[in-house]
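Quick entry, no commentary yet.
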Amino acid sequence: MPVNLKEPSATSGVDPTSLKDLKAGRGALIVNADDWGRDQETTDRTLECLDCGAVSSVSAMVFMADSERAAAVAQDHGVDAGLHLNLTAPFSAPGTSTNLIEHQQRLARYLRHHRLGHVLYHPGLASSFQYVVDAQLDEFERLYGSKPGRIDGHHHCHLCANVLLGHLLPTGTIVRRNFSFRAGEKSFGNRLYRAIVDRKLSKRHQLTDLFFSLPPLDVPRLERIFSAAKECVVELETHPIKSDEYAFLAGGNIFRWVAKGHIESFGALASRA
């Protein structure tokens, strides 16, 4: 079921049980565009991809330059939106609290400049993590009119130790899992760590079966991903601001592998369950 951009619908009220119910049924392909609201160009390019049916859902940033307008666009067009939790990119919305900016900058320095920042819990930053995550959850609700039914993260920082071990994401939400790799694509230790994190996530949250990025755009890899979506619930992450991904989506190349109307949104899955 494709996103219908002509008829507004609930933008974030995804039934958190929907993915669990679907896993006993047929597969699904969700093409999700990150960074909705980061700036006007990112939002507009993504909207083009939504309009042509190549993107089905978006992950929205708050406290960013285009967050307010993007939320209004989502409401007007019935765009399926979740929260793109941002702990690393500077907040750019005018009027953002100086205190919030300072706390987020502390987190960004830790996560971006310490090699093990993602995997080690930092007790000294626990209150900053709590404050910055809660502020974004509240701002999403203000902009979109409801709490986020699903959450992922900029640079995948929603999976860092302080967020996971601090239980900062609301129980029952759909949360983006780690990237899916076959044996040999990453080291055994890397894949084991990802599996442990995903297992912990699944105790409190709903996950898709598989998760991939759109690039690299090589034919054998794309064939494997789109084939997997026939039996599994697959999320495919994309960034339409990148020229190669934008051309693949807005130019219609994606429909060489998947027919129009077969790309589903998270919201459509909830109504299908």
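second:
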Amino acid sequence: MVKPLRSIQAPIQKELRIFEQRFKESMRSTVPLLDRITYYIVRRKGKQVRPMFLFLAAKLCNQVTEATYTAASLVELLHTASLVHDDVVDDANKRRGFFSVNALWKNKVAVLVGDFLLTRGLRLALKEKQIGLLQIISDAFEAITVGELLQIEKARRLDIDESVYFEVIRKKTASLIAASCAAGASSTCDDEELIDKMYRFGETIGIAFQIRDDLFDFGTADVGKPLGIDIKEKKMTLPLIYALRQADRKQRKHIIRQIKRHSEKQEVIREVIDFVHQSGGLDYATKAMHEYKARAFEILHTFPESETRQSLEDLVNFVVERRK
């Protein structure tokens, strides 16, 4: 049974409250328009899974320090900046059920707000002289950009195979969760082996997290109704890659042609979803997701039992088994 986030947060409730206040303070400016927008962003924040991984990783390795709060604010500032910029790039009007910044204040303002959050995060790390943390997070955001561009390149030709798929999600999704775990460890100690271990732990969870998102797009009784967003955007996800690999040449050519030419049509989306279901793509992706989850537990279980380790296990289960 998947535990609710409130229960999982128990060992770090105090730290999360302090972090939320400091995060709000880190976004303040002398420009009323900017403050209105950042206030709006804070109000529509998500589940804060990355700060949870960061604080639990810090506590697992040692104790939360001032550097841990800096690391959490840095991660969230840069992550929020990337989301604001993503909405502009994707011309998205909504995120998490709320209107996006670009929908309310137009693209020019949204880009500038994203730039402000990015530079504020960098400035915060430099002010606190957290160069090591800045290196970890900067590497992650470079990987995210490279992963996004690689995915765009491959979407044009629909020639992505499984090895390229994992390279994309390792960079685009897993790198930030990995960096959050590594930054949490780095904020409490100088043990490079331990920091690397937490990075590998976060990376495996990030990959499982993305596969779960892939499954959402095809919809089952387990994850909800079909969405087809990835199909519309011509993204080659693991269930579809596997299904195409199982198909004969004629069927594979037909499905790829349909996605290339008619991915916006509802009947084509339905055809692709049915094709993936019938080809065993969902079962294959689900198995892969659980394999990565098992790898994460192998790493986690090298630490002694504790309330913090249990919360990390529960958080892993939450991100892998979540329904939305």
